[in-house]
Design a protein that fits this description.
It contains 1 helix and 5 strands, in the order αβββββ. It has 97 residues and is of the alpha+beta class.
Length: 97
């Protein structure tokens, strides 16, 4: 029961961060094609951003969008209360600066 409540709380927090978390610029530093599927292109992308405390962080995620180019800039939202928590980081691929 406790696990269900804790999971629900994390999902609600993640939703809140996705909608209202700080939006910071992120730069693609590495891209590789995943070998998981021959039908769809799937890329593993590493982005670098600086949080509100001035700490430079990296975030690794996957995407099936067009292959992002190394050096391209995108936006990322994160939880300022827990900037190291990967589960509350969200990349906005279409919104570029």
């Amino acid at each position: 029961m406790l696990g269900i409540l804790f999971g629900r709380r994390l999902r609600e927090r993640a939703r809140s961060v996705r909608l209202t978390g700080p939006l910071v610029p992120a730069k693609v530093v590495a891209v590789s094609r995943s070998r998981g599927s021959n039908v769809h292109d799937y890329y593993v992308v590493t982005l670098r951003f600086t949080d509100s405390n001035g700490v430079e962080r990296e975030h690794r995620t996957g995407t099936r969008t067009n292959r992002p180019l190394v050096g391209s800039k995108h936006w990322i939202r994160y939880d300022p209360a827990h900037p190291g928590r990967r589960s509350t980081r969200f990349v906005e691929w279409r919104r570029r600066r």
